Every structure is written in structure tokens, then in C-alpha cells.
Amino acid sequence: MRRILIDSEKCLGCKNCSIACMQSHRGEDGVAGLNLSSQELESRNTVLMNSKKQYKPLFCRHCSKPGCAKSCMSGAMVKNPETGLVEYDYEKCAACFMCVMNCPFGVLKPDRASGTYVVKCDFCADKGSNPECVKNCPTGAIKVEEVTTV
Amino acid sequence: MKHVIIGVGAAGIVAANTISKHRPNDQIVMISADDAVYSRCMLHKYIGGGRSVEALSFVSPNFFEARNIVWRKGISVTGIDTAAKTVSFDGGTETYDKLLIATGAKSALPPIEGVKDCSGVYGLRDLADATAIRDKAAGAEKIVIVGAGLVGLDAAYGLIEMGKKPMVIDMAKSVLSANLDERAAEVYQTKFEEAGCVFRFESKVSKVRSDGAGNLSCMILGSGEEIPCDLLIIAVGINPESKLLPGKPDKYLKVGDDSVFAAGDATGLSSSWPSAMEQGEVAALNMCGIETVYEECLAQRNTVNFFGIASVSVGRFLATDGDTLDVRVDKGRYQKIVINDGVPAGVILQGDISRCGFWQYLIRNNVNIEKIPRSVWKVSFADAYGLNQDGEYEWVK
Ligand SMILES: Cc1cc2nc3c(=O)[nH]c(=O)nc-3n(C[C@H](O)[C@H](O)[C@H](O)COP(=O)(O)OP(=O)(O)OC[C@H]3O[C@@H](n4cnc5c(N)ncnc54)[C@H](O)[C@@H]3O)c2cc1C
Q1: Which listed CATH number (3.40.190.10, 3.30.750.200, 3.10.580.10, 3.30.70.20) goes with A1-59+126-150?
Q2: Which candidate in A71, A85, B56, B274 could, as Cys together with B38 as Cys, close a disulfide (CB 3.0–4.6 Å)?
Q3: CB contact under 8 A, A51 and B358
Q4: What is the pLDDT of residues B238-250, one digit of tens each?
């Protein structure tokens, strides 16, 4: 499958990835109209800092053993065996947030504005080649590569 | 190879999916008393009218066809012959090479005098229960739910959405006492009360009485108090549906000879959706000859989401001697971490469960967080951040 690989040593914490993610899911072209403090629009990735003050990008891994999909009781969160992506269906989701509790890396969260769905990376599925975060990373800390395990 | 799976709940479905993935040419037959695939965890949304039966499904509509699975629905298996390798039911038998028993559980019925002799008393486990409750509730005004745990409150929530104002009775002092401490529980209690629910704590039902025609008319508490009641829902726990199991599950979830496995609530090992899925997968891998050991999950881990307030509770959330306790309260948020000897033993997070999943990892794996030089509220996966060759995250020890 194709996965976003992370080289955290290259991460400068600029959060271009987060802005790109927000813009990508905004439904309108052009970053000029993007409201960075919008309650409704949230980045699906984030950059954490550890106790040594190093940046650690937190991006959905579309895991081979996804804790989220393995605990989903509505069928909304499903690992696609062909693409390897863990896909999320808003319509099916019952907002039980089992997936949030069961992501061992703490990537997932309920949406901030309504608390009725999960903020989840979709690999910019409808945007063609590479996810927008990767296209907009200025340091190459994230890049897409084919990996062997699905 | 022919696999027979009894049950189309969380465990049965995941098992079928796993077998079909690993052994696409094997034959799979599923037999279930249920005649629809649905998520029990969403039954309250069906009672409340928010979801149709189809919308309770947790699989795609072509799940069985796409995997060439024969599904014999609406059939109750009555016996297993492990020597002849057959399962039997009214009107037939089915042979197997590998058998999975994923029969779930039944609602437990406490000893209440008179229950057997009157109509209007239900558990909430199957779709048929939910349908019966919904139909009966439509014309009922005095509805009582016994049990203020997750299932009892699910029932109450569905009924509130129908415009009803149920009374909920529990022996404990608060709602959700198995999942939340009193402080977190009170937040939900208040919301339910505001919606018209009435609670009676530290009470139990001892008797029910019917009118002349066998319909429930009132229930009597242990204290002797009589409460008029035309619909009673019992939600005090479950009994694993284990009567078909020839033995206790071993670490491969094998329950007898090498051909018979069990998974889900039926095993008595757990009673939650994620654990049932996990066991379904492990049992199926073993049925395919891929040796896999089932690792016990944390028994206490759950999410609660009523009235838009989400909570996560994992592990041992009540502090005892020798524990240290971190508590943080601010607008709409209550968060509590119980730590023993540097190792988190349990958490309750209410109102803000954002990116909290790593807590379960820490608790389940007894990770000492004392050495991380930062506030416990700042601890995250970043403090043990690792990546493997394929770019998957790994906790660094
Ligand atoms: C109202 C409600 C709310 C819940 N909420 C949550 C929640 O929020 N979080 C959580 O983790 N868990 C929750 N649970 C528990 C969760 O639903 C169960 O743990 C889970 O369904 C167990 O899955 P299972 O596959 O073991 O059994 P089940 O889902 O019970 O499936 C059992 C299957 O076996 C079939 N069967 C049984 N006996 C026979 C027989 N003799 N012959 C043929 N077929 C048979 C049944 O028809 C059914 O298809 C809830 C349960 C209920 C009832």
C-alpha cells in the first residue's frame, strides 16, 4: 500500500501540513478563503512536541492492524484490503467514539464543533495523486511511498 | 475445508471476514437465530427512530455474496456432535471441518417474583427486543427500566427520543457505576433528568403484579413501595450463551477438540464489542491453521456518549491506598488519571476525549510514565515515538 512516511527529524513544526489538510477538506479552492480559527474545519493531522522539545508529526498510519476499525461497531471505519486505507463513512458512524479510545497512538478525535463524527485522514482520496499535507511539506519530513505490508 | 460459524454478531462476522481473506477457497456457512445483521450497540437508535433496521447493519449489503458465504438465517442451533462433526437444528444438520460458536449472550433476568406470569417485561439484547419495546412503549406511559448501566441508559435514551419519560432503578448509588465515578456519572444523570427521566438509586425490584388479563400493572420495590408500571425493561447484565460450548476456551480460543472454537460474549471472557471482534479474528486465524494466541484485553474500557457529552473510561478509575490521583476540571471537562507506582492504572476523560487513545495503550501495557519529565496532562505518544520499516507507529520502550 501507499503510506505517508515520516522523518520526524526533518520536521520544523511549521504546520504547513495542518493548513494543507484544512484547505484540502474545505470544499472550496484557494487558501485565501481559509479561516484558520474555524471551529468547523479541523486538520486531521497534527504536530506534537515531546518532553525534549522535538517535533513529532502525528498522522494516521492507516495501520495494518487498525485499532480503530477493529473496534468500530457501526461498520463506519473499515480497512480497504485493496488500497490499504482505513476508510471512514460519516453516514454510518454512530459517534460512539470507540475508535478514538482504541487508537493506540491517539491520532483520532471527535470533531470539535458538533462532536458527532471522527476527524480522520482520508489520504485526500478525491484529490488525485498525493495527499495535500505531503505536497505542502517544505522539508520533506513526510513523503508518500509504497510499503510492503497492507 | 468447510467452516461453520454460529452467530452473525461482532465475533461471527469478523471471523467470516477473516477466514474469507486468508482462505478464499474455503467454504463458509453461517447459521444464526438472528435474521438480520445488526449492531446491538445501536439498538437504542432504532427504538428512538433515528435508524432503520438497514442502518443498524455493520456490514455492506453484499457481505455474504461477495465472500460466497452461505447464510442460514433464522435458525437456532440446538446441538453439536463433535464426534460426527455436525451441528443440528430443528429440521436439519450441517457438517463442519472447523466450527466457531459465536452465540453471544442473553439478558440476565434477576429473580423477580411474578415476572414469568405477565406480559410487558423485556430485556434489551436482540432486535426483536428493541422492536417489542418500541411497539409497547408507543402506548405506554409508566415505563420502568431496571439497571442504570450502559444498556439501561441506552434504553432510556431511545425512549426519551420517543417522547417518553422512563423511571430508572438501580441498586448502585449512581448511573453507569461500572464505567464511571460518581462525579462523571452525575453529569449524565442530570442530563437524563432534564429530559424527564426519574432515577431511583439503592433500590431493587422484588415483585411485579399483573392486572386480571396477565398484563403488567405494577412493580414493588424491596422497600415495599408500589410503582404503577405498564412496561418493564430489565437491563441488569448478561449471561453468556454458552450452552453449545463443549468446554472452556484455551489461549487459542479452542473449546474442545482441535475443530471447535468460540469467540465473543459466548466465551464469558468479555462482554464488549471490540473484544468480540478481536476474539472473532483470533479464532478464525486458528481455524485457518494460522496459530494465534488471544491476549486478554482490559475488561474495563468503554466509551459513553449521551446528549453530546462523550466520555472514555479505561481500567481502574477509582483510586485506592497507594495511588496518586491527577484531576483536572474546567469548562465542560472532567479528566482523572489514577496512577500507581508511576504506572497509569485507569482514566476517566469526560467532555474532551480528543486524541486520548494512547491512554489505553499505557494502561494495558503497564507503561511507567514517571520518568517522562513533563506534566501528566502533556504526556502523549510523542514521548515514546517510534516508526517501523513500513512507516507504522511503534511505541519505543
Ligand atoms: C443495547 C446494547 C448496547 C451495547 N452497547 C455497547 C457499547 O456501547 N460498547 C460495547 O463495547 N459493547 C456494547 N454492547 C455489547 C456488545 O453488543 C456485545 O459485546 C457484542 O454484540 C458481542 O458480540 P458477539 O458476536 O459475541 O454476540 P452477539 O452480538 O450477541 O451475536 C450473537 C449471535 O449468535 C446468534 N445465536 C445465538 N444463539 C444461537 C443459536 N443457538 N443458534 C444460532 N444462532 C445463535 C444470534 O442470533 C446472534 O447472531 C451492547 C449490547 C447491547 C445489547
Answers
A1: 3.30.70.20
A2: B56
A3: no
A4: 999 999 999 999 9
